[in-house]
Amino acid sequence: MVMERAAKMCAETEETPSDETMLRNGMRIGASYVNGETADLMAVLREQEPKDQMAMRSGMIRTLLRNIMLPREDAVPESTLQGLRGIQLLSGNAADISSLCSELS
Fold first, then answer.
1. Are 17 and 55 a contacting pair, CB within 8 Å?
2. Alpha-carbon span 88 to 38, nearest angstrom
3. For residue 7, what are the contacts with CB-CB under 8 A and spacing of at least 6?
4. Is the pLDDT confidence value at 6 over 70?
5. What is the pLDDT of residues 55-75, one digit of tens each?
6. What is the C-alpha separation between 17 and 60, in angstroms, rounded?
7. 94/27 Cα distance (integer angstroms)
8. Alpha helix (H) ranges present in the chain?
9. Angle at 64 between CA 33 and CA 82, to 5 degrees
10. What is the Cα–Cα distance from 101 to 46, expressed in whole angstroms?
11. Which long-range contacts (CB under 8 A, 24 or more apart) does 40-44 make?
12. Residue 50: strand, helix, or coil
């Protein structure tokens, strides 16, 4: 019985690295979007399995949020603007997110 439970626990924990991998892939894709190397985040998400999309989206959002810097002067860095555009895109252009991103810009 103990061996069965241990095998079951191992099988359950094998799913976590997949989520971690998709999270890291999302972070990498988010960085390439900020750098201008990836044009459409939603197209990349649509190519993924539905079960992996949330983890990947979470990784993308983490990277995009990390690239938002509030300027000390009038000029807003391009990486911040690109990050804000990506967040709006991933949110489905939700009104509250759009207004927040407009205020930040």
1. no
2. 16
3. none
4. no
5. 898 898 888 888 888 777 777
6. 17
7. 22
8. 2-13, 15-34, 41-46, 50-66, 78-90, 95-104
9. 55
10. 24
11. 41/86, 41/89, 41/90, 42/89, 42/90
12. helix
Q: For tokens 């649509």, what's the residue?
A: 46
Encoding tokens for residue 90? 């991933």
pTM of the prediction? 0.73
* Dist CA 99 CA 33 (whole Å): 21
**38: which 2 tokens?**
């990836």
- CB-CB contact of 45 with 91 (8 Å): no
List the end-to-end C-alpha distance of the chain, in Å, as a whole number: 59
Look up residue 104 and give its two tokens: 């930040």
Q: Retrieve residue 44's tokens.
A: 């990349």
Give CA–CA dist 44/42, Å, rounded.
5
